[in-house]
Amino acid sequence: MGIDMATGASDIEVDYFEITGPAYAGIAIRSYPYCDETLGREVFTQYNTIIHHNFVHEIDGEGFYIGPSHYYEETSPTSTDECAPGIPEAALRVVEVYHNTVEDVGRDGIQVGAAIEGMSIHHNLVRRYALAGDSGHIGGIQVNPGSVGRVFANLIMSADDDVADNAIQFAGGEDGPTYLYNNIIVGTSTAFMALSRLGNEDSEVHFLNNTVVSEPEGGKTLTLFCDDTWVQDFFFQNNIFTDYAHVGNYIYTDSSDQVWTALVGNGNAANCPLNGLVHENDLDENHELDGNLYLQDPTEVGFIDRDGGDYHLAQTSPAVGTGEDLSAIFTDDFDGNDRGDGSFDMGAYRY
Question: How many CA atoms lie within 13 A of 292 on its CB side?
């Protein structure tokens, strides 16, 4: 690791480091219990982990590895036979990751696990991640099991060479909503993927006012893998989706040359309502969720300069003034500008 904090580290601030080289992770701050009961869930909690203004680049594995990854399991896979049945992994309380740059990493850009309270991931640049093509470790921002909170105003840019990735990957927290908003996602294979490791009816996930410019040769807007033992609601509102190949995950083209896709990938669609509706396998066009702007052709969105990477909205954009008022959740845009009263503009920027 570039920076490695474990075995009970807590109350940590890491700032203004540049880290590069053949490391598994740039910054790793997590305490796996192995067979040490003092590091288990019933005894230890990692408090106040603050990481900001760091530059991590050209790392073999993860950019940031914050918190353990198996909070959903009864015991940690690090436990050995000598302490069977094992020790559960401890939680984190208050995790803030902001104003960092992560570039050219082999696996996940920023991952935060077991943050059961006070998680905030914002104003980070994550660019060219998942370069190793290691399935299961391809998230730009990965919200690992146990974590709930807010992920906002991040710029996530995939590699240019068709690397498979999930721009935001959510693996599930419980007993608290998670809000993902005002993010700009560019060049992604999948803008949002959910792997429901933990959840319940009080664990809503809200994907709001994001600007998603996908990978046109095979990109999709989202896919969910839902648990068969609980219902968890997902809400998508005020997002711009453009330059995608399909809304859902491609299944087949029927005899009428119509494309069928899936938004839920494991047959548990009834347990993951999207905006209150169950989405079984269907024609791709039927997967467009009300309250969002879907335009496959990015020239129709009305970006100021899409080719130059400026995703602000022109006055004539169909995204201007056509969103719902979400001021009960947040009031500003990617730039910090107040969104004003009444209808929001769709996407990460206010016109």
Answer: 27
